[in-house]
Structure formats: structure tokens, C-alpha cells
């Protein structure tokens, strides 16, 4: 189907082993200021030109698969991947585990794919990755043009392929990819796959909140329903460039609504169904939608949320601020709430089931320029005016499809499940657009992953024979806390590749995910990216290189990550600092809606000439990237700068700790103190002995300066439904600023906040 299919990609399998050398390296790094390590480079060479020579010793019998991959003393990377895209040092000693042959454990450093996995993978060797990556950096126009040509374009883009200025010193930031190319992402996701003979293939499986609630749509059926909604939207006056706010739970109607907007050139703005009326009204006021699409209610676990009541209040608040929305299309979620139990405003509220099915199942495509807007997605969790991240059509389409394909080693027979909600960027790129552009079968889940019990995920995996499973580290840790028996009672034999998204995954959770969930045979794609990036930037590619638990490893094609110090000097080799990206890539966002100045100030002015991610990153002696969390999550303790993620990882390594979240608080002597919220494994009592043992674990692994000043027992942590920990709330609790908690409506369990407050002095 594409020109790169001959370059068979294989998923890199990360070892579930904690590299002893890496831990020692971590301790060394923390003994000095975390953002002054490494050598400055001037001028910086192309990242792809930095040599890497490593030596591996196979921890396997001579006849094993490991031996077939490695030879004792063989310069493995020197032979297969002589040049990696970031500064790398020699590996003094490595032991290897071949996928499917042994449990990953502390004494192992790396995991390699089995020969069987590599044989069928899309990228089957480090050398293949190196060649593809090298070309993507040296000839980005040619590399991405070949991939873009796999999609349907009504008109081809201009010869320049892309133009960019990301250096604020040279003028306004402006990025364009495939400018002049005319296409439509809905057509490419649906019509193109149907024309290829996949009309009868299942596009969407749907699993409801209660076991036994399910449904499915083939690609042909999905297109019919998308066209019906698109025709309705056109009928009520929605046209190219108009905004439509979508406030739906994880029903099949959510991706249907997104695709319907894209088909007619409307700009969709999906808002997580659970945001408060105030937050929703802010988005109405900012983007001024023609139509709001919502559901009357949703069930999440045992809890029922009246979504229509939230929308009613938001519409009233928006109208009071001068922005009136005249039409609200309401989908009746019959399993949760009937229409007769839903408050209704005649003339404004229209029932989806009464009008949309009356419209034709054929709808002409609105062809759009590659740089025409596709969607707005407002960032959440911070105070002040929300940021409307603006993504355009062509580059985003090409990038999300390509990253999905390679990061998950996608095969046409795969059944893919991402647990994220479409209210977040993961649901846009890797529930809807990326998978469907590849013709994948996607599972959409409405419920809570631990309802009615913590085995629900694996019950669903067995029911639908899920092969690719993508979730958040917080969910992994929550399920890990419940014990192995909820996992092992299910087969999970269909699983082929696992994935992690949302925040750095600590090594102990990685090992559990790999050893228990994946039966020590499934690679883990531990992806790093952001709402603003559109798709993965640093990620394992299954089969292309050995992995380390907790490391996002190496950059995706076309991405040039650099680590800089406070002055913007690039650091080489083993170092820690601020993660930036050189140059643009097709999926990068183009602006913040209505506020391009804020766009430049936030992302391009901190380090002129780079995109600043806002994240800290450590590159180890082997060149692997370890994300350390948001830079504003770095705590300065008596002059020592340390990322909260490292402290959390040390805490979770303790056998009694199920989960932790660390924030900084004001300290009269040290400047900032370390405040740790800790959730214990079931059955472990809150005692001073456990508290002291946890502190000792941090002192031992990192150093005395990183020891928490306060351990706050946490029966649970405040998380969004997608599993993201709301650290803003934790900071307020730690600082005793309880009157400034702000909006907690997006939390999966708002009651957790009161529990944490009650435990403050325990």
C-alpha cells in the first residue's frame, strides 16, 4: 500500500529489566546540578552523524535466540547501527534478554525482539532504522513526500513541500507542510479504505460501561453515519471554517462527529465530557461554535453524569458573556438516561436520533488545503485562559498515520485499543485519525477500566482479541496495585504490542506491564509526545533496537531532539537539561487560536531557534532518552535541581508503594521542600516504619538531598479519566491553599480530593 512497506518495521522491545548501570548513572547525575551536565557543542553537528559503538554480551546459551542475535564481544551497534541520532557513549557491559525466552528482571539490561517478531516487523533492524532516520533528517522533503503520496490528494502540494521559521529572532514563527495540496482527512480515513476493498472490515468496536453492552460498525457503515451527520450539519448552516464543539462520551458517535466535521471542512473542538460548565463556557466564548453536539448523560462505573445539565449551564454562561449558541444537538444515551428525563429547551435542543438518520448516506467532500484548520483542542489543568491548540490538515494527517503505523508495528489483522478519551490529543491522533487512516480496527470503550472489577481491561482484551493495547502509566500502576490475579485469570494471548502514553513510566511499572500483562513477550512502545506535537516524537519502534524500562529511547523519523542548558547551549553525550526540538515536523501545531503571540512566547522564545517542549530530559551514556517530567515539576532543594519523576520512581520501587506523586512546597531553609503523596499496596498499614522505609529508599537510590520532607498518605490520587494525575490540585493541598483548588470536574473520582485533605495530618 505504501512505498515504505518494503522497509519492514519491527517494534523495539524494551527490557523489563532495570539497568543496574543506569541506576548508578542516575545516582551520579543527581549528585550535581541536574541542568549543567554534559559538554557544550559549538557548532552542533547533525545529530545523525554522532558515532555509537557498543558491546553486548548475550545472557543466553550458545544455541539460544539471544546468541543468534548477539556474539560475545561483538560490537553489535557498530555492525548494525553505527550511527544513532543523539550523542552516545560506549556501553561497558550489557546482558540481553530475547523476547519470549525469559522474564525481564533486575540483572538484565536490555530486551531484544525474538527472531520471529523481527522477521515480520516493519523495521526489522537497527540498520534499517538508521537509514530511514538519516534520510528523514537529510532530505525531509523527499522523505515525507514519498509517505504523503500514499494518501489521496485532489491536488499535489507545492514543490517546496515545507517552509518554516521557528527562530523568533528572524521574524514571526510560521510553519507550513504540503501547502497548496488539496485533500480531506475524512476521505482518506474512510472512502480511501472502502475503495481499497475494506468496506466490510470492522472499523469500530464499541464496549459500553456495563459488560454485555457492545456494538460495531464496518468502514462502509461508519461512512454512512458520518455522511448523515455531515449532511445534517450542512443543513443547519455549518460550513467550511465554522467551529463545532463536541461534548460526547466515548460512544461511536464521538469519532463519527469528528469525521463529519472534517468531511465538510468544519473545525471541531472536542471537550472532555466531564469538564465543568465554567470550563465549557470558556471554550464556547473563545471559539464561538455554530453548533454544540453533546449527549444527555454518561455512566462511568457506578456513577451517572448528567452532561446535558452541564451544557445547559455553560450555554447560559456563554450567552451572558455575549456569545450565544443557537443549536444543541443531543444524543440520547439510552442505556444511561432517557430523553423524558432530560431537561429540554425547545427550539434550541434537537434530538440526534430524530433528525440525523433522516439525512442521506452520501455527502460530497469539502476539499481543503493542507494548511486549513482541522481541529482546536484546548489544554486543560491550568489556571487562566485555556490555550486553543490549532492543528491543520495535511501534515497532521501524514504524521499521525505514519507514527501509528511504525510505533505499533501495525498489521491489517490487528485489533487496536487505546484507553484514552477523544477529549484529549491521544484520542484524536491514536483513537480516531491515526488508526483509521491505516484502515485499522479500533476499540472504543465508554466505561471505567476497573469497573465492575480490576480485571475489566483483560476481559475486553480477550473478548475482542485485542492485539495492540495503548494506555497510561497511571492506569498500569493502579491495576498493578490490585494484584496479578486480576490479570492472570484472563488469557491475553492475542496481545502483540503494548504502549504507554501520558507521562514517564517508572521502571517497576514497566516491568510489571511487560512481565505480567505481556507475559514477557510483548514489546512496549513507551511514547513521548504532547498535545502540541500532534504525534509521537521520541518512541521505540518495535524491533529496531534494544529497550530499557522507563526510557522513551530514540526519536521518530524527522525529529531532532536536543538537550540544552539554561543558556540554550546544546549538551553532548551523557547529560540532563531542557528538551528542545530542532526544525519542524509535519504534525506540529501551527498556532494558539487567536493568540499567536502567546504561541511564540511559550514555545519558541525560551530557547530561540528551537521548539521548547517544557519537559526535562536525561540522556544516558548509551544515548537513551529519559523524560523527567515538566520543567516546572523540577524542585530546587538547597541548590540541587531534581525532577519529581525521579523521586516518584524511587518511591514506587519500594515493595509497599503502589503509586506516588511528588510536588514542591515552600521551605524556610531549603527554598523548596519535597512533598510526596503515596498510595500503599492493599493490606499495608500506614505506619511510621513504612514512612521511614520509603524515605530511606529515596536516599539510597538518589541521595539524601532528595529525601521527601513529608509523606502524605493517599488512598487515591486525583486523576482525569485518561489517567493523568492533576498535580495542580496536589500542590494546593500540600500548600494548604484549599480555597484555590479550582476546577476538579474532570477528575474520575472527585471524592479523592476530600480524602486527601482528611489525611493531611496523619
Outline the fold blueprint:
Elements lengths: L19 H11 L8 E2 L16 E2 L6 H5 L6 H5 L14 E4 L11 E3 L2 H6 L5 H13 L1 H9 L13 E4 L8 E4 L4 E2 L1 H14 L3 E6 L6 E5 H17 L7 E5 L5 H11 L3 E4 L6 H11 L3 E5 L2 E3 L2 E3 L1 H14 L7 E4 L17 E3 H4 L12 E2 L3 E6 L9 E5 L1 H14 L7 E4 L6 H13 L3 E5 L10 H9 L3 E4 L1 H10 L2 H4 L8 E4 L6 H11 L6 E3 L33 E5 L6 E2 L2 E8 L8 E2 L3 H8 L7 E9 L5 E6 L3 E4 L2 E4 H9 L4 E11 L3 E10 L7 H14 L8 E4 L13 H8 L16 H8 L4
Parallel strand pairs: 2-3, 3-4, 8-21, 10-11, 10-12, 12-15, 15-16, 20-21, 20-22, 22-23, 23-24, 34-35
Antiparallel strand pairs: 1-26, 5-6, 7-17, 8-9, 13-14, 18-19, 19-28, 25-27, 27-29, 29-30, 31-32, 33-34
Helix pairs in contact: 5-6, 7-8, 8-9, 10-11, 13-14, 16-18
Commentary on this structure:
The chain is an alpha/beta fold. It contains 23 helices and 35 strands. Residues about 1-110 have low confidence and may be disordered. Helix content is about 30%, strand content about 20%. Helix 5 (about 125-140) crosses helix 6 (about 140-150), helix 8 packs across helix 9 (about 255-265) and helix 13 packs across helix 14.
